[in-house]
Amino acid sequence: MRADGSCFCITDHFSPENANDTAKETCLNWFFKIASIRELIPRFYVEASILKCNKFLSKTGISECLPRLTCMIRGIGDPLVSVYARAYLCRVGMEVAPHLKETLNKNFFDFLLTFKQIHGDTVQNQLVVQGVELPSYLPLYPPAMDWIFQCISYHAPEVTASVLTWGSVSCSALLLNSVMSAFRAEFIATRSMDFIGMIKECDESGFPKVASPFRSLGLNLALADPPESDRLQILNEAWKVITKLKNSQDYINCAEVWVEYTCKHFTKREVNTVLADVIKHMTPDRAFEDSYPQLQLIIKKVIAYFHDFSVLFSVEKFLPFLDMFQKESVRVEVCKCIMDAFIKHQQEPTKDPVILNALLHVCKTMHDSVNALTLEDEKRMLSYLINGFIKMVSFGRDFEQQLSFYVESRSMFCNLEPVLVQLIHSVNRLAMETRKLMKGNHSRKTAAFVRACVAYCFITIPSLAGIFTRLNLYLHSGQVALANQCLSQADAFFKAAISLIPEVPKMINIDGKMRPSESFLLEFLCNFFSTLLIVPDHPEHGVLFLVRELLNVIQDYTWEDNSDEKIRIYTCVLHLLSAMSQETYLYHIDKVDSNDSLYGGDSKFLAENNKLCETVMAQILEHLKALAKDEALKRQSSLGLSFFNSILAHGDLRNNKLNQLSVNLWHLAQRHGCADTRTMVKTLEYIKKQSKQPDMTHLTELALRLPLQTRT
């Protein structure tokens, strides 16, 4: 605090010359008051806490105080209290004078001298009085010891580290463990064999003399590699000791760390040996039930290093190791880890029976965990992992084996709808691949196989819950059947889709929110109409039987009161019927004769087509009249213009009735001033432009009959 009341900060470049006499006198007064404290421990901690204030008094104040405070700690008789006092002094020393390493080393050597008191009569008697067991007492030391060692090892030269390690460990497991926790992993790894020798010589009751140091050594070896020539010897020497551990928790804590070292530097043979040893230790008395976290880490480390799953599953003890996960939730998590690794690292499709059998078992475990309480997010995750596996299975040109795999998968994963959907898509792709590869060679065997694929889809789709999922799959599967010249099967798919439409609810659940279904139904029907153009009529069911059935369903469906979706669908039907009246259709499927080939422009077919057009148009006009009664004039204007555009694009305006209807619709769109003038202007400009085409001269007269309404 300056004389004017302001504060100043003690920076690294601060010197006593920067402080005035008042500040120095105040600071000195503080230290005199601290010196008058009679109790040793309070006096030590208070002085250590303001050690940095020595910069007010002299440049050498801190370097003089640190050794004195170090000696002061020698007066603390309790070794546990003294080690925490030294840890605090090391912390303060690193903050105010990190270059003064001698004080740190002195604290370390003083600690070594007092550490021997733990086994002295004084400490032992005190523990008896307080009712504290040695195994509970000794673990109180490592936090302070670790801090002291970390301070010493910070930027410590190799010589200093070696002297501290080899000359001061005194074969104490407690000290050795702290040394390996504090020093750099590279330093420990290069001297692994020396540390193993010291761990073996440790003899200290009350502390896990082998488990904790070996775990610390294993953690260092996971971060830094030992000399290549020592690697096998390190594993052999370490595992000889680890495998003799009687306490299952001590054993698994060590084994879990050393598994990574084994996977990192050795082959599946050594990994298999380690896994077998873990099974041997953890199976008796079901010890594995208390060690699921460590066992999970072992699995994660193994799959992190074995990306080739043919090698992984050839490890004899890998699957028996998985059997130790008896708790369902834990077992499922482990299976998810395995499948996630497979999806990430499997680059090429596989048909390896070892991989397939193992992963089918893993996926079945995940699937069987699904019940009524399973969250949707969890179902999505499990489906994603199982689908990832299914996509990576390929038997090449052995299509029958591929289909057999899909059949088996369907029976195993029947409770996850996204998996069934994936299987249906996969079978449809299989049918199309068969068609491509067997092109020009349509044998009975090939046809039978395609029909088997089609039957698979037809049987599976009804088991799905989502109604639009079923509709779209019926349509897609029907398209595949049609592409493979399976006409009766295609008809069956399309009929199934038509019969399902009445079941579409008014509201459907989309991502947890209820949404109106009519827009989704409109989208589906538009796709359906595009397919129906090329579907040939069945000889026993009359002309356009599928279109008629679909129109009946649309007519009977209960639409929302204020909805115009029905009319939009009817408009799409007109587009379909217009395309069906052409001499040659816009597109075809290879080796499938559509109605343009079957009827060849037959007058009876065209007459039936026209009747359907008139029926649909009557429905549209009736709806437009009803909108006028309901005073829904804006909707009437919009629908009227849309109907006009459909007639313009798909109708023959040389027909007088159709020409007059288009004029009436144009006037209707503008009648109540609800039309978009900009749209009307652009539409009229388009008609005038088209009238200049050689075969479109009749549009010139039409354009003259379409006035634009002016607004005043």
Can you describe this structure?
Belongs to the VPS35L family. Keywords: Endosome, Protein transport, Transport. Its main location: other. The chain has 712 residues and is an all-alpha fold. Among the domains are: 8-156; 527-674, no CATH class. The protein has 36 helices and two strands. The protein has helices at 21-35, 40-49, 61-73, 79-96, 101-115, 121-130, 134-137, 142-153, 158-168, 173-182, 185-190, 192-201, 211-223, 231-242, 248-265, 268-282, 292-305, 309-312, 318-322, 328-345, 353-368, 376-391, 399-412, 417-437, 444-460, 467-483, 487-500, 518-532, 545-556, 565-580, 595-599, 603-629, 633-650, 656-670, 677-690, 698-704; strands spanning 507-510, 513-516. Strands 1-2 form a two-stranded antiparallel sheet. A hairpin with a 2-residue loop joins strand 1 (507-510) and strand 2. Helix 4 (79-96) runs antiparallel to helix 5 and helix 10 (173-182) runs parallel beside helix 13 (211-223). The two termini are 83 Å apart. The mean pLDDT is 87.
